[in-house]
Amino acid sequence: MQLMIQTFHKYSGKDGDKYTLSKVELKDMLTQELGNYLGHAQDKDAVDKVMCDLDSNQDGEVDFTEFVILVGALTVACNDFFLEYHQEDGKKGN
Ligand SMILES: [Ca+2]
Ligand SMILES: [Ca+2]
């Protein structure tokens, strides 16, 4: 949780409002923190889509509440990934 807050503020303070992520900041965060995981996030359309999905009140910025939703979604995605990974691993063992 602490790490999430630190990560958010590391990027949210760079441009405009200190407490929200603009599209530029969101893109920075996605490429810096999740570049390996979301390789296609460097694609402008992908950032637009993530921004659109996250910005639930449509003010053009991602606030901390909206950011938490992203982290939750990624946690679920990672969990699915690891479940699949373990299933693959199990198959190899047989
Ligand atoms: Ca900002
Ligand atoms: Ca918003």
Q: Would you mind describing this structure in some detail?
A:
This protein has 94 residues and is mainly alpha-helical. The protein has one domain: EF-hand (Recoverin, domain 1, Orthogonal Bundle). The protein is built from four helices and two strands. Strands 1-2 form a two-stranded antiparallel ribbon. Helix 1 crosses helix 2. It is elongated. 17% of the residues are buried. The protein binds calcium ion (2 copies). One calcium ion binds next to strand 2. InterPro entries: EF-hand-dom_pair, EF_Hand_1_Ca_BS, EF_hand_dom, S-100_dom, S100/CaBP7/8-like_CS, S100_Ca-bd_sub. One of its GO terms (cellular component) is cytoplasm. It comes from Denticeps clupeoides. It holds the Pfam family S_100. Keywords: Calcium, Metal-binding, Repeat.
Q: If helices are DSSP runs of H or I spanning 4 or more residues, what is the number of helices?
A: 4
Q: What is the radius of gyration? A: 15 Å
Principal-axis shape equals elongated
- Percent of residues in helical segments? 55-70%
Looking across the biggest beta sheet, what order are the strands in?
Answer: 1-2
CATH class call: Mainly Alpha
* Sequence of secondary-structure elements: HEHHEH
Mean pLDDT score, rounded? 83
Strand content: under 5%
Largest sheet: 2 strands, antiparallel
CATH architecture: Orthogonal Bundle
The total tally of domains equals: 1
Class from helix and strand fractions: mainly alpha
Distance between the termini: 38 Å
Count every beta strand, where a strand is a DSSP E run of 2 or more residues: 2
Bound ligands, named by name, code or SMILES: calcium ion
Q: List the uncertain runs.
A: none
Query: Can you tell me the CATH topology?
Result: Recoverin, domain 1
| CATH homologous superfamily title | EF-hand
